[in-house]
């Protein structure tokens, strides 16, 4: 939120929280920092009941899963996730807000937990460490790879590798759809961490893992909304129709799948990932906060026929007394609605991809241009999505650059239209980009019109259920 607004009040509150957490960490004197005692990690490492400490230092369910968890009951407290969330928040304070103290705190936490993990491996075996990861550990690998890009400390790289969970990523590496029985929001962050591993190390295997993962989730484990999971877990491939209940599409999973698709689009510029992002954002993010009650979020999005958000076990929460994981991701989602609208193409010739149609202004510093996007509000009677893109240039003689504008896969050519300064442009087919390379000047105006069609989509495993 601060990155978008640079609000002074937010800046003051952020700094105050970092300072308070620094005092807590300094009082402990070990580098440890969390909302619960370090003894929780003793229980975690001993495979004793405690709910996911690493998840909350970046959640677990009473269930027996595949051999990946050695049939261990998943009843550990989420201390791991809390750790990950604290570390990621502090790292963001450094990378986004420039708080140097926050970086030192993250490094101290990483060093502390590197010691704990090393001790587990030395006292037991590496397998004991892998077994302890059969709980929600959040994106520990992700945040540690990010930390390594800043510190270049090999210890942080090694620690990140130790949270990569090979029994899960290994299945994806051999392109096996074995998601059935895995807890969805435990493992999507592991894939995101694998994506960061690819960016840090250049190992193409982890790019292939993420690509295959996205393919199988979309083809065999997703609803028309773009959401995934049944009672927080993945079911058998293309067996969704039999599991349409109130306990479908955990909100946190959509939050994390948007991260997966964002990385894939950055790497490939494939429009399918941009289409997915739009689908999941509209259906799985904008729908999780009750419109007239800001701060009231929902855990699950019921997909069963005739099911209600209000009448379900994981229905609407409250503004001040609900502290589910989906409140954390939900609040973050609504603080960054401007994310993933524009993607800049680096290189000698400036290029910009516009992949989401959301009213916004983008200061394109590399090109010396400002792009202002306006979208006509839609009603049920509208036949077209109408978008206006206005350009202003810092230089009096303009700037040569390329705009790549997404033509959504859901539209049709019948009635589609694009004009630049009142001159018609030839449109490519839906599911491609309209590419315009020119010397852009202040006052340039691009108008887009996309037909909106009513259509149905059958669920993956039932032709007559839409």
UniProtKB/TrEMBL annotation:
Every Non-reducing end beta-L-arabinofuranosidase-like GH127 middle domain range: 352-452
Pfam families linked: Beta-AFase-like_GH127_cat, Glyco_hydro127M
InterPro entries: 6-hairpin_glycosidase_sf, Beta-AFase-like_GH127_cat, Beta-AFase-like_GH127_middle
Transmembrane annotation, as ranges: none
GO biological process, one term: carbohydrate metabolic process
Domain Non-reducing end beta-L-arabinofuranosidase-like GH127 catalytic residue range list: 1-339
Name used for this protein in its record: Uncharacterized protein
Organism: Oryza sativa subsp. indica (Rice)
């Amino acid at each position: 939120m601060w990155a978008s607004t640079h609000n002074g009040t937010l800046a003051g509150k952020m700094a105050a929280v970092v300072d308070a957490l620094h005092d807590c960490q300094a009082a402990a004197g070990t580098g440890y920092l969390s909302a619960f005692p370090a003894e929780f990690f003793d229980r975690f490492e001993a495979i004793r009941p405690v709910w996911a400490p690493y998840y909350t230092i970046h959640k677990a369910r009473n269930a027996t899963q595949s051999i990946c968890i050695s049939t261990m009951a998943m009843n550990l407290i989420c201390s791991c996730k809390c750790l990950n969330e604290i570390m990621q928040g502090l790292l963001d304070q450094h990378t986004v807000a420039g708080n140097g103290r926050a970086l030192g705190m993250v490094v101290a936490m990483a060093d502390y937990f590197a010691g704990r993990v090393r001790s587990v491996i030395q006292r037991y075996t590496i397998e004991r460490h892998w077994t302890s990861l059969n709980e929600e550990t959040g994106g520990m690998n992700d945040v540690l790879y990010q930390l390594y890009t800043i510190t270049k400390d090999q210890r942080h790289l090694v620690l990140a590798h130790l949270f990569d969970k090979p029994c899960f990523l290994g299945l994806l590496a051999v392109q096996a759809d074995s998601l059935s029985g895995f807890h969805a929001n435990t493992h999507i962050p592991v894939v995101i961490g694998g994506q960061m591993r690819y960016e840090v190390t250049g190992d193409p295997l982890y790019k292939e893992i993420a690509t295959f993962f996205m393919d199988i989730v979309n083809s065999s484990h997703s609803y028309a909304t773009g959401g995934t999971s049944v009672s927080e877990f993945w079911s058998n491939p293309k067996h969704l129709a039999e599991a349409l209940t109130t306990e479908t599409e955990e909100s946190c999973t959509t939050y994390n799948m948007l991260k997966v698709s964002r990385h894939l689009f950055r790497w490939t510029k494939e429009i399918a990932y941009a289409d997915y992002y739009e689908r999941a954002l509209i259906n799985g993010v904008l729908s999780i906060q009750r419109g007239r009650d800001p701060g009231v979020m929902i855990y699950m999005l019921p997909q069963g026929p005739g099911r209600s958000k209000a009448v379900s076990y994981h229905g609407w929460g409250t503004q001040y007394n609900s502290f589910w994981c989906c409140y954390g991701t939900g609040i973050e989602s609504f603080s960054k609605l401007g994310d993933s609208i524009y993607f800049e193409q680096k290189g000698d010739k400036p290029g910009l991809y516009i992949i989401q149609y959301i009213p916004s202004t983008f200061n394109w510093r590399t090109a010396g241009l400002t792009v202002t996007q306006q979208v006509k509000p839609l009603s049920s009677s509208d036949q077209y999505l109408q978008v206006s893109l206005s350009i202003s240039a810092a230089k009096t003689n303009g700037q040569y650059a390329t705009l790549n504008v997404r033509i959504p896969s859901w539209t049709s050519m019948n009635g589609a239209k694009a004009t630049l300064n009142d001159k018609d442009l030839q449109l490519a087919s839906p599911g491609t980009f309209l590419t315009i390379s020119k010397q852009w000047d202040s006052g340039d105006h691009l108008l887009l019109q996309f037909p909106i069609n009513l259509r149905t989509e059958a669920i993956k495993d039932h032709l007559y259920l839409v």
